[in-house]
């Protein structure tokens, strides 16, 4: 495994931490931290934590690509996540799915794993062929490799043993990749990536900044980490990863237990880094992004609470074995729901879904498409 170290003979020098006027920033930082914790407490009390986070992850994946100048339909992301693509996935949709997968991986793994070398490598979903991350990481995988090598020597006794061992090793590695434990090992094309670009060294420099600011206020540390990520031009084909890791810093420092919608906050905030800002202005700009993210999250939580109250009035009178509460849960956890999507996830017929939607009556969320062949409803 690659270890965290920075040598003096590397081309890139360690990033110098700025001197900040803490007496002018501490009030703003404390006030915003209080707002974050208030929102976090309200989210926990509402009982909509999982649904809000699921919707947030999907909308953030679309907005992250929007900040990179690429438009992805939110409905395509929802259907692609459920394995129900209506058309061949585009390059933009694949990148949005990678952003969605990265956010979910950060939420599943415990802090501070996302802020480690292994975490960044797994979130990127790509590793160098020289990296030993592709090696077996548990005894079971090693036993499978040993059985495969034995089969190569004694393949006359059981010719199928070697093939079955290879299949078992492939399945074991696939399960580890899907769980986010190891990244996919891929070679880097020189047509896309610069041969002189040493991203591992830049990752070490960025992790050094995170390490040296561990005693700073959480918002200031996240702001400086995001600024360092941008200035180092880390992983330019995944620009959304910097904001995700900034949110992971806030989660690691205990400011919030959720992953805030920072891409939505950046989209609506007036702050845009130009490189001429002072360190204090950069922190203030990041605070504006977090404030806008909280506003966006609070509005979405209010919409979900109102829609849940309306639909619960109908579900109170339904039978105990009815699937209607499950339909309500789908609306609360996804930006949009189609008949085919609900039929697949609830394992019922499309006709049953149509009947349940009619049963909701006036509590049914707004129809988004206005078409007969492809109808979708969502809480907006």
The counted number of beta strands is 3
Strand order of the largest sheet: 1-3-2
**DSSP helix fraction:** 55-70%
Total of domains: 3
Radius of gyration: 24 Å
Major beta sheet summary: 3 strands, antiparallel
Give the low-confidence spans. Answer: 3-10, 127-156
Distance between the termini: 46 Å
> Can you tell me the overall shape?
globular
Mean pLDDT: 82
Structural class: mainly alpha
| Helix-strand sequence | HHHHHHHHHHHHHEHHEE
Residue fraction in strands: under 5%
Write the layout of secondary structure elements.
Layout: H1 22-46, H2 49-67, H3 74-81, H4 91-108, H5 117-124, H6 139-153, H7 161-178, H8 199-212, H9 218-231, H10 240-252, H11 262-268, H12 279-315, H13 324-333, E1 337-338, H14 339-346, H15 350-360, E2 366-367, E3 376-378
Antiparallel strand pairs: 1-3, 2-3
List descriptors.
single chain; 380 residues; mainly alpha; Arc Repressor Mutant, subunit A; 3 domains; three-stranded antiparallel sheet; 59% helix; disordered N terminus
């Amino acid at each position: 495994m690659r270890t965290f170290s920075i040598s003096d003979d590397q081309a890139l020098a360690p990033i110098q931490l700025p001197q900040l006027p803490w007496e002018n920033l501490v009030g703003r930082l404390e006030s915003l931290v209080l707002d974050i914790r208030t929102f976090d407490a309200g989210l926990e009390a509402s009982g909509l934590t999982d649904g809000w986070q699921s919707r947030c992850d999907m909308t953030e994946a679309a907005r992250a690509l929007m900040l990179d100048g690429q438009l992805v339909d939110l409905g395509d992301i929802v259907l692609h996540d459920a394995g129900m693509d209506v058309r061949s996935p585009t390059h933009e949709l694949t990148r949005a799915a990678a952003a969605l997968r990265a956010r979910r991986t950060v939420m599943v793994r415990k802090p501070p794993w996302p802020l480690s070398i292994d975490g960044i490598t797994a979130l990127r979903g790509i590793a160098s062929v020289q990296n030993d991350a592709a090696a077996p990481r548990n005894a079971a995988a090693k036993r499978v490799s040993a059985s495969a090598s034995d089969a190569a020597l004694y393949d006359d006794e059981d010719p199928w043993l070697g093939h079955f061992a290879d299949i078992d090793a492939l399945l074991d590695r696939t399960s580890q990749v899907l769980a986010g434990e190891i990244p996919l090992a891929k070679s880097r094309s020189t047509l896309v990536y610069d041969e002189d670009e040493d991203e591992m060294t830049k990752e070490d420099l960025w992790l050094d900044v995170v390490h040296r600011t561990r005693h700073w206020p959480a918002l200031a540390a996240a702001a400086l980490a995001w600024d360092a990520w941008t200035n180092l031009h880390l992983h330019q084909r995944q620009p959304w990863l910097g904001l995700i890791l900034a949110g992971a810093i806030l989660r690691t420092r205990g400011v919030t237990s959720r992953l805030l919608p920072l891409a939505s906050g950046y989209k609506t905030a007036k702050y845009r880094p130009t490189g001429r800002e002072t360190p204090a202005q950069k922190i203030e700009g990041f605070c504006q992004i977090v404030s806008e993210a909280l506003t966006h999250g609070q509005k979405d939580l209010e919409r979900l609470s109102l829609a849940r109250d309306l639909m619960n009035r109908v579900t109170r009178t339904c039978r105990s074995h009815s699937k209607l509460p499950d339909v309500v849960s789908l609306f609360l956890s996804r930006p949009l729901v189609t008949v085919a999507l609900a039929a697949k996830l609830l394992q019922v017929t499309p006709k049953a879904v149509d009947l349940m939607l009619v049963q909701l009556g006036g509590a049914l969320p707004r129809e988004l498409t206005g078409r007969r062949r492809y109808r979708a409803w969502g809480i907006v």
